[in-house]
Amino acid sequence: MDASVSRLRTTVAVLAPPVVIGLVGLTHPAHLTQDASAWWRDLHVVLLPLFPLLAVGPWLVARSIEPVYGRITLVLGYVYACFYSALDILAGIAAGALKHDREGGLGTVFGYASDLGQIGSIAFIGATAAAAGCLVRVAGFKVLPGAVVALLGAYGFMQEHVYPPWGVLSMAAIAVGWAWMLTVSGRVPGARAPSRS
């Protein structure tokens, strides 16, 4: 890839998230009132996938300069994405939803949590399918049994979260499926690389 194209992509990745978040933030209500509660809630739903992107810029810059600092910023960015998302979910989405639901209650929070979790779960299934597809492409159909097991586990995770026994079994299926795919594709240290016949 041309160096100027790479720099342009990095610049966009660094600058776009804070600019877009700032523009959305211009519409943030000053106070959580009954009248503002629906927008307060919905605004934080919009921001939920945007906030973690703030961590991408520092990581891209640091990793292009020094791998050690790239790893440090990756870890710090991951911690930020996890814990700041908690703030957005609790103080933004849940608080807005509870205020909007005049009667309040856990049903409101669980309903929104379920809807948002469904989006994340579908994305996880998609990521699993895409990565498994890449392995099938480079290593052949011998990874397919592992892909099927991992995808079944991802689907089970969407249905059962991590509640025992099925959610826990879903996590085990994900791990077993990935172990199979990585081993037979030669992506695990010590595993035989796939033959090109």
Summarize the structure.
This protein is an all-alpha fold and 197 residues long.
**SS field, number of helical segments:** 7
Distance between the termini: 31 Å
Whole-number count of domains: 2
Mean pLDDT: 89
State the total count of DSSP E strands: 0
Uncertain parts: none
Shape category: flat
Helix and strand content put the structural class at mainly alpha
Give helix and strand order, one letter per element, not per position. HHHHHHH
Keywords: Membrane, Transmembrane, Transmembrane helix
Organism: Aeromicrobium fastidiosum
Transmembrane segments: 12-31, 43-62, 74-98, 118-136, 164-182
Protein name: DUF4386 family protein
Relevant terms:
single chain; 197 residues; mainly alpha; 2 domains; 75% helix; flat; transmembrane
What does this structure look like?
The chain crosses the membrane at residues 12-31, 43-62, 74-98, 118-136, 164-182. This is DUF4386 family protein. Keywords: Membrane, Transmembrane, Transmembrane helix. This protein folds into 2 domains: 1-103, no CATH class; 105-197, no CATH class. By secondary structure, it is mainly alpha-helical. It has helices spanning 3-25, 37-47, 56-65, 67-100, 106-139, 144-160, 166-184.
Write the layout of secondary structure elements.
Layout (H helix, E strand, L loop, with lengths): L2 H23 L11 H11 L8 H10 L1 H34 L5 H34 L4 H17 L5 H19 L13
Organism: Aeromicrobium fastidiosum
Protein name: DUF4386 family protein
Keywords: Membrane, Transmembrane, Transmembrane helix
